[in-house]
Design goal:
The two termini are about 35 Å apart. The chain is mainly β. It has one domain (about 1-80). The radius of gyration is 19 Å and the shape is flat. The protein has strands at about 1-20, 25-35, 40-55, 60-70, 75-80.
């Protein structure tokens, strides 16, 4: 997994809930802030969760961080971003 130093904004084709016979699922273009990437996905956020478990020695809790994102095949283009010099 690769985390970006600066987030990027990308345009992606996202499936809507509308279906047209003969065409298939209707797609729309959406902008998303990308904070990293894996081999197959652009990462939009990280989800941290925990899973409790126990054994003969006691109860424990494991913590996991999962990368949530959009598949690279849905990518359309990068949006140009300009760093603000003055606020």
């Amino acid at each position: 997994m690769k985390r970006y130093d600066q987030p990027k904004v990308g345009v992606f084709k996202i499936t809507t809930d509308k279906y047209e016979p003969g065409v298939g699922w209707v797609l729309k273009e959406e902008e998303h802030r990308i904070i990293g990437e894996t081999k197959y996905d652009y990462i939009t956020r990280f989800l941290t969760t925990s899973c409790p478990y126990s054994d003969d020695l006691g109860c424990y809790e494991a913590h996991y961080t999962i990368a949530i994102g959009i598949h690279k095949s849905r990518f359309v283009e990068w949006k140009t971003t300009q760093t603000s010099l003055f606020n």
